[in-house]
TrEMBL record, chains A, B:
This is Arginine biosynthesis bifunctional protein ArgJ. The gene is argJ. It is found in: Cytoplasm. Its EC number is 2.3.1.35, 2.3.1.1. Gene3D superfamilies: arginine biosynthesis bifunctional protein suprefamily, ArgJ beta chain, C-terminal domain, L-amino peptidase D-ALA esterase/amidase. Pathway: Amino-acid biosynthesis; L-arginine biosynthesis; N(2)-acetyl-L-ornithine from L-glutamate: step 1/4; Amino-acid biosynthesis; L-arginine biosynthesis; L-ornithine and N-acetyl-L-glutamate from L-glutamate and N(2)-acetyl-L-ornithine (cyclic): step 1/1. GO terms for cellular component: cytoplasm. Substrate binds at residues 172, 195, 206, 286, 405, 410. The record marks 133-134 as: Involved in the stabilization of negative charge on the oxyanion by the formation of the oxyanion hole. It catalyses: L-glutamate + acetyl-CoA = N-acetyl-L-glutamate + CoA + H(+); N(2)-acetyl-L-ornithine + L-glutamate = N-acetyl-L-glutamate + L-ornithine. Heterotetramer of two alpha and two beta chains. The active site is at residue 206. Coiled coil: none annotated. Belongs to the ArgJ family.
C-alpha cells in the first residue's frame, strides 16, 4: 500500500483527481438513472460505455464459492478479453436466485445489446458485463429493469459526462460516491468509480469497481496490471480475506489516446487508482469512527506479514478497543499470537501512531496513556524474525456498525 | 456437542447438578477471598486443594503462541502428571509481563507451597498450577497477592466447602459464577468451575476451568478424557478457533472414592461436565442477547463441517443480523461460501429454528418472515456433499458487546 494520495497529488508519474470518474478518459460515456429497483426512488442503474476504437478488458472477481448470477455471467464474458459496456444495478444482488436469476442477468445484457445496437453501435450481449449489489436472495424486478435499460442508453446518448451519476447509482449503504481519475502527462488517462461500505466484515460488503482508460493496451497487459493492483489494495482493505458473492473489479481500455504506456506505467497508474479508491472505501465504511492501518513488519515473508496483519485487523476485541480510543496493546499481541505464522513470542514490539506501547512483548512506559482519540490509528507490529512486511486497512467496531447491520433485509 | 443438560438431568449414566462445584467430590477443599488485586474489592483469589490420596492431573492450554506466565508455569508443572493444588487469580492476566511476570508466578507457587506445608501438608511448588485472568500487560500486585496466599490457606482450612466462593473469585466480566457437579451411582463424583465471558471473539476471552474428581484414574486416562471433551465443547464454543493468552482447563483426580471408572465412563462424565460448563459460558457471554448454535451437516468430513460452522459463527454480518432478529439467510450463504471447504454452490440449504429459509441455494417461501425474536437461534446448513457434521456455539453481535469491549483497560 502506498500512502493515500490526496486529490491533485502527483502519483505514478501523473496527477490524481477525485473530481472526475469513469468518463475522464477519452471515448467513454456513462449514465446513472432511477430504474425503480430501490424503493427509495434513488438512482439505481448505471451504464459505462466504451466508444472504442479498441475494447480490451480484464476483470477480477470474488473468490466466494457462492457467486451471484452477474459474476458468473461477467466472468464468462471476460473470457474473451473484450468489453463494450458495463451495466450495474444497486438495490438487489441477484445472488442465490437460481437459474431464473442467471436468466435475468442474461436478459439484461441482451436488452442492453439491443438498445445500443438501435442507438447505432452494433453490440452483442457477449461484450457486456453485468454487476449487481444489494440484498442477497431476491430476484430483480425485471419489469422495471428492462425498460430502464433502454432509457439509460437514451440518457447516455443525449447528455454530457454521466460519470458522477453512474457513481451515485451504484451506491448502497455508501454515504458518498467514490470516483478518481489519473492523467498522465503523455496524454493518456484513467478514470474509475467504486462502491462498497460494509468494510468490517467484507463477506457481504459487495465491492464494485469500474476502471476506464484511453491507453492502448492488450487484455493480457490489463489483466497483469489489475491483478497486481487488487492484490495490494482491495485485497488488503480489511480483514479476513473474504469476499462477497458479487465483488467485481473491471478495467476497460479503448485506445482512444493512441498512446501505449509501458507495462510499468500501466501497473503504476492502476495501482494508484485502486489505492485511492480503496482509501475512499475505508473512509466511508459502515459505522466507521476510526480509520485503522495495521502494518506487520519483520515477518518471515510478506505472506506471513499479511496473515498477521489480517489476524489483528479482523479481531473484534482489537476493533472495539479502537472504537473506545483504548490503547489496549495486549489485545494486539493476543490477536497476532493466534495467527499461524512464525513468531518469537517474547520479541514482539508494537507502536500506536508511532508511540511504542510494547517492546519485546512487555508494556512500554506510558503505554496506557497513548492518545488514540483522533480519527486515524496506525498500528505497527515488529516481529523481528525476518524481512516480510505488509499493511492492511481496516476500521473500528462501533455501535454504528452493529446498528447498520442488524436491520438490513427486514 | 450433546444437548445441553439441565441441572438434575441424567447424563452419562449419572446426575448432573449446577448447585455444586469443585468441592462436590470427596477430598477436595476450596476457598475464594478478596486479595485486593481487583480495585473493586471483590473476590479475586481462588484455591482448589486436593487431599489425596492420589494427585493425578491433566491439563489443556491455550494454543496462542503468546502465552501468559502462569500458562508457561502450569504446562511445565503438568509434565509430571501430578497436582496438589491450583491457585487462580482474577484482576490481572500476568501476560506479556516478561521474565519478571514469570518470577511472580513462580513466587506465588512457592508461597502457596510454604503455606500448605505450614498448615501440615508437605507440598512442593512443582505440584501447584497457577492461573490468572484479567487485563494483559500489567504486573500483578505481589505485595497484596503474597500475603493473601497465606490467608486463603487459612480460610480453606477453617471452613466448609468453599467451592462457591472459588467460582466467584475467578470471575472477570462474568455476571454469574459457573459450577457443575456429576454424581455417578457407583459413588464416584466430579465437580467443576469455569469463568469466561468474551465469547464473541475469544482471543481475549480467557477461559479458566478446573475439574475435580474422586475417581481413581491415571494422568494418561485423565489426559485422554480431557482432550476428547475439550475438542467437542470448549473448542467449539464460538468461533474462530482462537484462544487467549491464558486459557487453561485442568482436571485433578484424587482417588478418594476408591472407584476406578472405565475410560468410557470417565470420558462420558468429563464430556458432560465440559458441555454443561460451555453452555453456561455461552449463556453469560459479553453482551449476548441471543444464544446461537450453528450446525453444518452433509460436509465432506467432520473437519470440513467444523470449518464451515466456524466461518458462519464468526461472521460479523451474520451475528449482527441475529442481534436484529433478522432472518437474513443470504449472509449465511455468503459466509459459508468463503470457507475453504468442498461445496456445491447451488445445492446449499439452510434452516433457522427448523424453518427452511433457503433450499438449493435459493430462498424458500416465507423465508423473510421467519420469527427469530426469541433468545435461541439454531442455524442448520445442509451442504449435500458428504456425511460430515459439526456444531459450534456462538452468540449475536450486539451494542452490549461493543460497549463492554470498547472500554476495558482504560
Amino acid at each position: 500500500m502506498t500512502d493515500t494520495p490526496v486529490s491533485g497529488a502527483e502519483v505514478a508519474g501523473g496527477i490524481l483527481l477525485r473530481t472526475q470518474g469513469v468518463t475522464a478518459p477519452l471515448g467513454f460515456r456513462a449514465a446513472g438513472i432511477a430504474a425503480g429497483i430501490k424503493a427509495s426512488g434513488k438512482l439505481d442503474l448505471a451504464l459505462v460505455f466504451s466508444e472504442g476504437p479498441e475494447y480490451a478488458a480484464a476483470g477480477v472477481f470474488t473468490r466466494n464459492q457462492v457467486k451471484a448470477a452477474p459474476v458468473l455471467w461477467s466472468q464468462q464474458v471476460l473470457g474473451g478479453g473484450r468489453l463494450r459496456a458495463v451495466i450495474l444495478n444497486s438495490g438487489g444482488a441477484n445472488a442465490c436466485t437460481g437459474p431464473g436469476g442467471f436468466q435475468d442477468t442474461h436478459a439484461t445484457a441482451e436488452e442492453l445489446a439491443k438498445a445500443l445496437s438501435n442507438w447505432g453501435t452494433e453490440t452483442g450481449a457477449g461484450e457486456i458485463a453485468v454487476c449487481s449489489t444489494g440484498l442477497i436472495g431476491d430476484r430483480l424486478p425485471m419489469d422495471k429493469l428492462l425498460p430502464a435499460v433502454t432509457e439509460i442508453v437514451r440518457e447516455m446518448g443525449g447528455g454530457l459526462s454521466g460519470g458522477a451519476e453512474a457513481a451515485q447509482a451504484i451506491m448502497t449503504t455508501d454515504t458518498v460516491p467514490k470516483q478518481a481519475a489519473f492523467h498522465h502527462p503523455a496524454t493518456w488517462n484513467m478514470g474509475g468509480m467504486a462502491k462498497g461500505a460494509g468494510m468490517l466484515a467484507p463477506s457481504l460488503a459487495t465491492m464494485l469497481v469500474v476502471l476506464t482508460t484511453d491507453a492502448v493496451a492488450t487484455p493480457e497487459q490489463l489483466d497483469l496490471a489489475l491483478r497486481n493492483a487488487t492484490r495490494l489494495t482491495f485485497d488488503r482493505l480489511d480483514v479476513d480475506g473474504s469476499c462477497s458473492t458479487n465483488d467485481t473489479v473491471l478495467l476497460l481500455a479503448n485506445g482512444a489516446s493512441a498512446v501505449a504506456p509501458s507495462q510499468a506505467e500501466l501497473d503504476a497508474a492502476v495501482l494508484a487508482m485502486c489505492d485511492d479508491l480503496a482509501a475512499q472505501l475505508m473512509a466511508d465504511a459502515e459505522g466507521v469512527t476510526k480509520r485503522v492501518t495495521v502494518t506487520v513488519a519483520g515477518a518471515l515473508s510478506e505472506e506471513e506479514a499479511l496473515t498477521g496483519a489480517r489476524a489483528i485487523a479482523r479481531d473484534s476485541l482489537v476493533k472495539c478497543a479502537f472504537f473506545g480510543s483504548d490503547p489496549n496493546w495486549g489485545r494486539v499481541l493476543a490477536a497476532v499470537g493466534i495467527a499461524p505464522i512464525t513468531l518469537a513470542p517474547d520479541r514482539i514490539s508494537v507502536s500506536f501512531n508511532g508511540n511504542p506501547v510494547c517492546v519485546n512483548s512487555t508494556g512500554a512506559p506510558g503505554a496506557r496513556e497513548v492518545d488514540l482519540s483522533g480519527p486515524d490509528i496506525h498500528v505497527r507490529v515488529e516481529l523481528g524474525v525476518g524481512e516480510g512486511t505488509a499493511t492492511v486497512r481496516t476500521t473500528d467496531l462501533s455501535y454504528g456498525y452493529v446498528e447498520e447491520n442488524s436491520a438490513y433485509s427486514s
